[in-house]
Amino acid sequence: MGLRAIRSLQPVVDRVIVAGRHEVPSSWGTETLFGHREGSGPLGAIVDSSELCDSQQIVVAPCDMPNLSTSSIAKLIEASTSSDTAVAIANSSLLQEPQWLAACWRTSDVRGVVSSLYAEGVRSVREVAYRVEHILVELPLGDLVNLNESASS
Fold it and tell me: By residue range, what is the domain housing residue 48?
């Protein structure tokens, strides 16, 4: 599943970094990040990525959302760069909740307010998104299928 996310990212980003517990094969064309917040969930990985990243945005494409397309990732990036918000979050009006982990974060905000919230003990991406300026980006429902959620969620 991770390879599908990587393949969707590669056409629209300069660098793909996989944050996780396992090294990925070099043939995938990525780097693996084992940051000092490893084991602290997705928010820890986002903050770790901001310390390694030299771009203006950090795009998060969860491996449990294998249908997230390159065009949807491009829409998240476009929404992030064209607005004055900390994060652009994947959404469908047909969902009860946005897909908080499929997002494009402004790196400066992650290094600033998001890192501060993390240092205060916040670990929920959803909670952080509510506490910073964010925009919901309408994407096709099929792109937002999360394999860790039941069909009734």
Answer: 2-144
